[in-house]
From TrEMBL:
GO terms for biological process: cysteine biosynthetic process. Residues 1-59 form the HTH lysR-type domain. Keywords: DNA-binding, Transcription, Transcription regulation. This is CysB family HTH-type transcriptional regulator. Belongs to the LysR transcriptional regulatory family. InterPro entries: CysB_PBP2, LysR_HTH_N, LysR_subst-bd, WH-like_DNA-bd_sf, WH_DNA-bd_sf. It comes from Duganella vulcania. SUPFAM superfamilies: Periplasmic binding protein-like II, Winged helix' DNA-binding domain. The lineage of its organism: Bacteria, Pseudomonadati, Pseudomonadota, Betaproteobacteria, Burkholderiales.
Length: 313
């Protein structure tokens, strides 16, 4: 048994059981991958994959257990490599963050700026996607951590911790009648065409749920993943917008006004997620502390070790 065989098994699953694609991803030959997998199966005495002719189609029942062990072994090997790299260069290396557009555009700039001043030799990359996509990036070791709202909490294989709370705001033109309301209601909002987030982003599920509970129909004129796009169409007079409070800046958005609506849609919690059992370089702990001062290395390590304490803001 060798590490190449384990890598081939893992990559075959990642490439949807296509051995040609697995071989390309690992810069080797398809026959070599197939032979190595067969040799591993013979050594273990079980079939890892189901087959149709010479093609593999899926995992057998023991194959699922083998894959779980393979993932753990490869994760530990990656951790060993990272330990060596960190101690060889404490203040340099690469760091990849997977996040949503809202976080990347409105929350992270000041944090990233402060981080880069502390660690100018670190190569920082930002990958954007919806919550499901960024969670998968961390699961597949394409990113070191993910930042999004509650939707990444409870994802298998990830440890998530709360960073900060925020509420939605309704954005309107300066002369909009909603500004005259002492406390805006769902019924008042429902009277206008709405421009808001796509269903996968920024607490949209809470917005839909609130209207559904009251039996109100939500007239969504336009959905977007970018609050700047939402604000642009509100400025054009096409409707009212519902966006994350962090995405509104009174100085920058002078042609709009914001109405806090946390009393209607509740508070949202942005979270940071890392892979369970992963080795985090010291500067990643520093980044998390810059992002969420309520978190510290000790608390993060406790969560990583499987401590059962329930931590919330």
């Amino acid at each position: 048994m060798n590490l190449h065989q384990l890598r081939f098994v893992r990559e075959a699953v990642r490439q949807n059981y296509n051995l040609t694609d697995a071989a390309k991803a690992l810069f080797t030959s398809q026959p070599g991958v197939s032979k190595a997998i067969i040799e591993l199966e013979e050594e273990l005495g079980v079939d890892i994959f189901t087959r149709h002719g010479k093609r593999i189609r899926g995992l057998t029942e023991p194959g699922r257990l083998v894959l779980e062990s393979v993932e753990l072994i490869m994760q530990e090997i990656d951790s060993l490599k990272r330990i060596g790299k960190e101690y060889a260069a404490q203040d340099s290396g690469s760091f990849t963050i997977a996040t949503t557009h809202t976080q990347a555009r409105y929350t992270l700039p000041k944090v990233v700026q402060a981080f880069m001043l502390k660690f100018p030799k670190v190569r920082l990359s930002l990958l954007q996607g919806n919550p499901q996509q960024i969670a998968e990036m961390v699961q597949r070791d394409q990113a070191d951590l993910a930042i999004a709202t509650e939707s990444i909490a409870g994802v298998t294989g990830l440890i998530t911790l709360p960073c900060y709370q925020w509420e939605h705001v309704v954005v309107v033109a300066p002369d909009h009648p909603l500004l005259k309301s002492r406390q805006v209601t769902l019924e008042e909002i429902a009277a206008f065409p709405i421009i808001t987030y796509d269903g996968a982003f920024a607490g949209r599920s809470k917005i839909d749920h609130a209207f559904s509970l009251r039996g109100l129909k939500l007239d969504v004129l336009l959905e977007a993943i970018d609050a700047d796009v939402i604000k642009t169409y509100v400025e054009l007079g096409m409707g009212i917008g519902i966006i994350a409070g962090m995405a509104f800046d009174a100085e920058r958005d002078k042609n709009l006004r914001a109405i806090p609506v946390g009393h209607l849609f509740g508070m949202n919690v942005s979270r940071v997620a890392v892979k369970q059992g992963a080795y985090l370089r010291s500067y990643i702990y520093t980044f998390i502390e810059l992002l969420a001062p309520t978190l510290n290395r000790k608390l993060i390590e406790q969560a990583m070790s499987g401590a059962k304490e329930h931590y919330e803001l």
